Structure formats: structure tokens, C-alpha cells
Amino acid sequence: MCPQKQIARDELLLKMRDLENTGLDCRDCQAPCCTFHYNSMRITEAEGQDLVKYLISINADLKEIKNKCRAVIDEYRLDKDFFMKPDARLRRHYTCPFFNNRELGCTIPAEHKPLGCLAFNPTDADKKGQTCKSLSYTDNSEGPKLEIPRVVLAVLEKVLGIL
Ligand code: SF4
Ligand code: SF4
Predict the structure, then answer these.
(1) Ligand 1, atom 5: closest residue by C-alpha
(2) Which strand (E) or helix (H) includes residue 52?
(3) How many domains is the chain built from?
(4) In this structure, are residues 104 and 122 in contact, taking their beta carbons and an 8 Å threshold?
(5) Helices 45-57 and 62-76: crossing angle, nearest 10°?
(6) What is the distance in A from the centroid of ligand 1 to the CA of 61?
(7) Is the pTM of this model over 0.85?
């Protein structure tokens, strides 16, 4: 991971710890931010590569993850591009393939989660999942962003072609 990204991650982790100390954590929430209800997270290819490096480091079943990504892409038709304007691709909602459908259900640890995911936090302990928003952070990412399963699938196809 590049040094700027690591700095942004460390800053976000510190801010999250401060929030947690005031009761603003993700416990007791069904995480609509990871499902098609709210989730439209997009990442760069470099972020997808970081995620896949992490998955390889834990000996995850890459073929199974590839199949999950493909299933999510098909279910939400993420490979069909819709445009509001010629240069503005419509953001798409989908349930993340790394979400296991329970409280605190993201299977990617904070040290490896996409920064956009890490930045999204509750603002009101009594309204978790209703008033959450992104903390500000320096986004040094370069290149286009697409939905997590599209990017991860593309990286996995390259990696599995090599392995
Ligand atoms: S990577 Fe984790 S936090 Fe981000 S959308 Fe997927 S399940 Fe949610
Ligand atoms: S960020 Fe908000 S919606 Fe997502 S799990 Fe945490 S409290 Fe729930």
C-alpha cells in the first residue's frame, strides 16, 4: 500500500476510535451500508489489488470469491452501464460480496477495508443505519472507480490466470 494511503487509513482509524469512545460504532446495526439498501461503494483498481493481496495472505478460496463477485454483478446488473449524462455513470446499489449478512458482518478487517468503507460511520447512536455519513479523508486514489465486485473480479481473473 502506498504511504499516502496508509496515512489516510491511520487517520481514519484514529477518528473511528474517537467515535467509538462516544458510542458511535457499528454494533447493533444490520449494516444497510453493505447491502443493496445503501451500498454503492466504488473502488480503484489499486484498491482492488490491495484487497486481493489480503485475500491471498489469508489463503482465501479465490475461486469462490470470484464466483460470488460474478453472482453479485449478475444480480444487480453491475456490468450494464447507465448514464445520467454522457460523462456521468449512474452509481449502482448492490450487496457487497464480502458482507455475511449479520451485525458487524464485513469479512474484511479494518486494516484492509477500502478507505471509503472505513470512512462511513454513524453520527447518532440512536439512529444507526439512518444518519450515517462519511468522515472526510484525503483521497489520493488515481484512476476510475467501479463497484467492489467488478474491480475484485477483474483483479482475480488476472491473478487466477497467473496462479
Ligand atoms: S468491503 Fe466490507 S464494509 Fe465495504 S461494502 Fe463490503 S462488506 Fe461493507
Ligand atoms: S456505518 Fe451506519 S449503516 Fe453501516 S454498519 Fe455502521 S451504523 Fe450501520
Answers:
(1) 34
(2) helix 45-57
(3) 1
(4) no
(5) 140
(6) 18
(7) yes
pLDDT, tens digit, 9 for 90 and up, residues 90-116: 889 999 999 998 888 999 999 999 999
Residue 19 φ then ψ, to 5°: -60, -45
In angstroms, the CA 41 to CA 47 distance is: 12
Cα of 86 from ligand 2 centre, angstroms: 33
CA angle at residue 158 from 155 to 161, to 5 degrees? 145
Least distant ligand from the CA of 120: 2
Residue 31 alpha carbon, nearest atom of ligand 2: 5
**42 Cβ inside 6 Å of ligand 1:** no
Give pLDDT tens digits for 6-21.
899 999 999 999 999 9
Query: In terms of residue numbers, what domain contains 10?
Result: 3-162
Distance CA 76, CA 38 (A): 13
